[in-house]
Design goal:
Shape of chain B: globular
Helix content of chain C: 55-70%
Structural class of chain B: alpha+beta
Order of helices and strands of chain C: HHHHHHHHHHHHHH
Number of strands of chain B: 8
Helix content of chain B: 40-55%
Number of helices of chain C: 14
Strand content of chain B: 5-15%
Distance between the termini of chain B: 40 Å
Chains: A alpha+beta (123), B alpha+beta (361), C mainly alpha (365)
CATH architecture of chain B: Orthogonal Bundle
Oligomer: heterotrimer
Number of helices of chain B: 13
Largest sheet of chain C: none
Number of strands of chain C: 0
Number of domains of chain C: 2
Radius of gyration of chain B: 21 Å
Structural class of chain C: mainly alpha
CATH class of chain B: Mainly Alpha
Distance between the termini of chain C: 25 Å
């Protein structure tokens, strides 16, 4: 009986101890969570050689290459990072930008121009 | 007296997702329980037949979002076995470290959620505070918090860094666990809710295919980590308690976290002893498994998980099958809840650590 | 109160206004004051609870609306006002609408019974305590009606659970209150308050001789208010929201308000019974010392109210602390706990207090 009372008191005191600790809340819009170098956020492309590896490794069919347009469909993208990891020339990068919410559905289609390789065919 | 038919779920605060239990009550006594699963079915197995192996790899993290590393490890292991790829010691040590960290984070979440089911609010936040450290580390090394996609066939994507952070965390964690224990373990009300409730006979557990902490809490010392080639050279002992009730299932997870801390410290020593990262990558675009059947298993936080692949020599498997621990635990509810009262039912279902994406796949 | 009443009537007589008008307005105005004060207190109380729960779990609590989150409850109330009132199909409309109102009324009456200071007791009957104890059980009626009328199985289970719970916990409360009545030899809350003022100061208040009763009262009040660890009628993880599952909009807000109003009223009641009501913990009031002349004499009433509020907020703090710590009891353990432990203990307590009154008498007379 006395032991149970002690344990009850112990639980109360342990919770009470936390009253004086600093909150761990991160107040989001003012303070942003810092993400590392490897964070997989909004994808970015520069210097594509049109090898087509990214299309083949993408699980969600989110990448399209049409002539000189390199298109990420963010509605489909699952941010797995396969494309950037297997890109032979490291043309695709996942940036640290994780604030992707938007009011315009067209913003979710990322279009990057492929430069300097107009005459090569896509295999 | 007519019985009351109660639909517990699929939208209910304490079914951990979208579990639906069709209960028949007499007063508050449960006379029949019928679990209905499938509300979160995403066709994980069928998807494998359409995608190539490298395309499928990022998706398996989502089978159990609380312990994603285990499922990627499982798929990687199966394919490494099929193609006889050797892992370097550093890769092995990194994998063990991350798997055990993931087990800790999964158990921490369970502790919080279980106590939330019982009505205690504070431990939930405390457990999430510790879990946050682990997830932050995962984000740093792999790029995302839960859908890591960090293991690849033949190795890991990049080398890990900042091990000191984990070492520091492992020093703090036992004190935090003591905190939780002093709040709940011996609390009178908590004991009243859990001791002697939901007694799981080892015979029934084995017949229903229960594995993992739930089985070990019933006194059966079955832990596949013991015969796992990845864990070779690690000294640890699977924790077995014999009281078979909800309280034991809670206690065993606390003790397992302590055991995982032991394994991680050993893994960190091995990582430091092997500073060179040698990945044994293969060309991702034409992974073709030779014709045949492949099977591998691993001790996931919610019981033994295993992956079976039947290949017909093409780029995607002919059939891929997952075995997940929670699926069998859900089936057990049919037996365990009958004859219990409604509020004990919630505690018992919570103590089995069911997570729905793993059940429905 | 009588003093004020005669002053008011005299004032009206001077201006040739009939006495009946004075009688009516004199009781309508205090009712309005109670109502407005109640709403204000509840707004503060909800914020207090959310902030404290946040701090207990190392969060910040509400901190967005207004400075430091002070307007959070106001925003919540406004949101609830704007929402649609939904009546589920198959619900008993009349009862469904009536239940929140039945829940809210006793709170208003109960607050009128509390002596906020030596002059402000809106309804000063000789049997204040008895009326209060009866009023405090009123919500159970409303909860049962709400649970039954909602046409929802979770609501029904919640309502029925509450009836069993209140039946079990009302008896220990009655016996404990009885022990205080024995100590004070009065059923009037003002008299009980005054009986606690003696040369022992804080130790003269009834929490010290009647420490068992004080503990019992705290536990049973938790059960009566359906607060954690006795929140079975609205056990979130089992019954979703219990009896108010189907309520939305203003009706839900009424339940919410009366829950917190009852919490406030009950904490006031406990402070009056055990913590010396409006008495100052220092033995004498500070305002005559700080302000000389008539200002100090008027401020005394406000100081008394301040002490009462401070004591009640101390009790509310304990309730929130309990909520942050303990898991919920199972329904059968809850009933067993009351019938097997609390009820015998409260009877023993009553006997002890009677003996104390009989033998030591003088001190607590």
């Amino acid at each position: 009986m006395l032991k149970e009372f002690y344990y009850m008191l112990l639980s109360f005191l342990t919770v009470f101890k936390h009253l004086f600790k600093r909150p761990v809340t991160l107040e989001y819009p003012e303070k942003k969570s810092e993400v590392g170098e490897r964070f997989r956020g909004k994808p970015y492309m520069k210097g594509c050689i049109k090898c087509g590896t990214c299309i083949k490794v993408c699980p969600a069919n989110a990448i399209k290459i049409e002539d000189n347009d390199f298109i990420f469909d963010m509605k489909k993208c699952i941010f797995c990072g396969n494309c950037s990891f297997y890109c032979p020339v490291k043309a695709i990068k996942m940036t640290q930008n994780y604030e992707l919410a938007t009011n315009d559905v067209n913003d979710l289609k990322l279009l990057y121009k492929i430069e300097g390789r107009e005459n090569e065919r896509l295999d | 007296m007519t019985s009351l038919k109660l639909n517990l779920g699929p939208q209910h605060p304490s079914t951990h997702g979208v579990l639906r239990l069709i209960l028949e009550l007499e007063g508050e006594l449960i006379t029949r329980c019928e679990p209905d699963v499938g509300y979160l079915h995403r066709g994980m197995e069928k998807m494998a037949e359409k995608l190539s192996y490298i395309q499928y790899l990022p998706l398996v993290d989502r089978i159990d979002y609380l312990a994603g590393f285990f499922y990627s490890e499982l798929l990687c292991r199966n394919i490494e076995k099929a193609l006889s790829l050797e892992l370097s010691p550093r890769v092995k040590a990194i994998r063990v470290m991350l798997l055990e960290l993931n087990r800790i984070s999964s158990h921490l979440l369970w502790i919080g959620a279980f106590l939330m089911d019982l009505g205690a609010v504070s431990p939930f936040f405390y457990a999430f505070r510790e879990r946050e450290v682990i997830l932050k580390y995962f984000e740093k090394i792999s790029g995302q918090r839960m859908m890591n996609n960090y293991f690849v066939f033949g190795g890991v994507r990049n080398d890990i860094f900042d091990i000191e952070e984990i070492e520091r965390f492992l020093e703090i964690l036992p004190h935090k666990l003591d905190d939780y224990e002093s709040i709940i373990t011996d609390n009178l009300i908590f004991k009243k809710r859990t001791v002697g409730k939901g007694v799981l006979d080892p015979k029934i557990a084995l017949n229903f295919g229960i594995t993992g902490p739930n089985l070990r809490a019933s006194g059966v010392g079955y832990d596949t980590r013991k015969k796992d080639s990845l864990y070779e050279g690690f000294s640890f002992s699977p924790i077995v308690l014999g009281n078979q009730d909800s309280w034991t299932r809670y206690k065993i997870r606390i003790l397992e976290i302590h055991e995982s801390i032991r394994i991680i410290t050993q893994a960190i020593e091995k990582i430091k002893a092997n500073p060179e990262l040698n990945n044994n990558f293969i060309n991702p675009l034409n992974i073709v498994l030779p014709e045949g059947e492949y099977y591998s298993e691993i001790e996931a936080p919610r019981g033994v998980a295993s992956c079976y692949i039947k290949s017909d020599g093409k780029k995607s498997p002919y059939r891929l099958k997952w075995r997940t621990g929670s699926y069998y635990a859900v089936n057990l509810l049919r037996k365990l809840l009958v004859g219990e009262y409604l509020n004990d039912a919630i505690a018992i279902a919570g103590s089995l650590d069911i997570i729905l994406p793993e059940v429905d796949k | 109160m009588n003093y004020l009443y005669f002053l008011y009537i005299e004032f009206l007589a001077k201006h040739n206004i009939p006495k009946i008008f004075g009688d009516i307005t004199f009781y309508v105005i205090p009712a309005c004051i109670i109502f407005v004060a109640l709403i204000l207190v509840i707004l503060v109380l909800v914020l207090f609870e959310r902030k404290l729960l946040g701090w207990f779990t190392q969060r910040k609590g509400p901190n967005r609306v207004g400075f430091w989150g002070v307007l959070q409850t106001l925003a919540d109330a406004f949101k609830l006002l704007c929402k649609e009132n939904i009546t589920p199909i198959g619900a008993d409309r009349a009862v469904f609408n009536l239940a929140p109102i039945i829940m809210f009324l006793p709170v208003l009456i109960a607050l009128g019974l509390i002596p906020f200071s030596s002059e402000f007791t809106f309804m000063n009957f000789q049997t204040n305590v008895l009326i209060y104890v009866i009023l405090a059980t009123f919500p159970v009626l409303s909860i049962l009606l709400a649970g039954w009328a909602s046409n929802n199985k979770y609501s029904l289970i919640g309502g029925v659970r509450n009836v069993a719970q209140i039946l079990a916990y009302e008896l220990p409360i009655s016996f404990t209150v009885l022990s205080v009545i024995v100590l004070a030899s009065s059923m009037n809350l003002t008299q009980i308050t005054l009986a606690q003022s003696n040369q022992y100061g804080v130790l003269g208040w009834y929490w010290f001789p009647c420490i068992i009763g004080f503990g019992l009262m705290l536990i049973c009040t938790l059960a009566e208010l359906n607060r954690c660890p006795f929140d079975l009628p609205e056990a979130e993880s089992e019954l979703i929201a219990g009896y108010n599952t189907e309520y939305s909009g203003m009706r839900f807000a009424l339940f919410y308000l009366s829950e917190y109003g009852m919490l406030f009223a009950n904490s006031l009641f406990i402070s009056v019974l055990f913590l010396g009501g409006y008495l100052s913990p220092f033995g004498k009031y500070l305002s005559p010392i700080l302000f000389s002349g008539p200002v100090g004499n008027i401020l005394i009433y406000f100081e008394q109210a301040f002490w009462l509020f401070a004591k009640s907020f101390l009790i509310i703090f304990i309730f929130i602390w309990v909520r942050a710590t303990l898991p919920r009891l199972a329904s059968f353990d809850l009933l067993k706990f009351s019938w097997n432990i609390l009820l015998p203990l409260s009877i023993v307590n009553l006997l002890l207090m009677s003996l104390l009154k009989f033998f030591v008498g003088g001190v607590y007379a």
